[in-house]
């Protein structure tokens, strides 16, 4: 079967003082339907840039991204807007995606409000019943209903990240990009959020690009992993084979540093 996402020969450079840095250097990869691809690598290795290019938030210098055979980087205007529903994101900092002046239910409904014709198959009821739909999304991410009318500052960091996840899944995306989704959270809460993301992947059948510098969470979440260093993909393997002796020396160093 053909992959859900194909990334071909992505290059992206940034100018840093007088030097040119490669954020992405000849990155090619694929994600199958229902698969979670994990991305690890040290700070500055290009992980977030890769995510942003796939989300069409950043333009590469060259290369192409295909989602179900649609060349994302060729799209403009209405066609690009239409495609955005299919690739959604959960960032590290939930505060960045939540409006402090909006009650939670409105933040949750914002993506669906932007796509009035979308009705995810896992929601029921009337499309116009916005509070009813927000309530179902809240339940899917394990928050009690009385949180609907609360404001972001009345929630804990973990609860806010659950709200950001509710937004992320609300349009029934084909791919959810998670960029360090637990890095801003207390250690005790991190595992709960990972569990939630993992169970949502199963129940909703989404594919994930899961980015983290925390190699253990990536191994827990993903089916396959890639390792990035200075913009290059230097290793690629099934997550179960992370500690296999054939791993790249740099991957071994990352594993060693984490244990
Ligand atoms: N908007 C930008 N302007 C200039 N340089 C940038 C920009 N975004 C990223 N870079 C540079 O590109 C490289 C890759 O950055 P990126 O944010 O993708 O790394 P990362 O792996 O996500 O790092 P981290 O783990 O710290 O989040 C770095 O050298 C970074 O400084
Ligand atoms: Mg990053």
Task: Write out key terms for the chains shown.
six-stranded mixed β-sheet; 25% strand; binds adenosine-5'-triphosphate; alpha/beta; four-stranded antiparallel β-sheet; 35% helix; Rossmann fold; 9 helices; binds magnesium ion
Report the strand count.
10
Q: What are the secondary-structure elements, in order, as H or E?
A: EEEHEEHEHHHHEHEHEEH
Q: How many helix segments? A: 9
Q: What level of helicity do the residues show?
A: 25-40%
Q: Give the strand content.
A: 25-35%
Instruction: List unreliable stretches of 5+ residues.
Output: none
The CATH H-level superfamily of the largest domain is: P-loop containing nucleotide triphosphate hydrolases
- Ligand identities: adenosine-5'-triphosphate, magnesium ion
CA radius of gyration is 18 Å
Assign the CATH class of the largest domain. Alpha Beta
Largest sheet: 6 strands, mixed
Tell me the CATH architecture of the largest domain.
3-Layer(aba) Sandwich
Q: What is the overall shape?
A: globular
**Structural domain count:** 2
Cross-sheet strand order for the largest sheet? 6-7-8-3-9-10
Chain-averaged pLDDT: 96
SS content category: alpha/beta
Look up the CATH topology of the largest domain.
Rossmann fold
Distance between the termini: 37 Å
GO biological process, one term: transmembrane transport
Protein name: Peptide/nickel transport system ATP-binding protein
InterPro entries: AAA+_ATPase (IPR003593), ABC_transp_ATP-bind (IPR050319), ABC_transporter-like_ATP-bd (IPR003439), ABC_transporter-like_CS (IPR017871), P-loop_NTPase (IPR027417)
Family: Belongs to the ABC transporter superfamily.
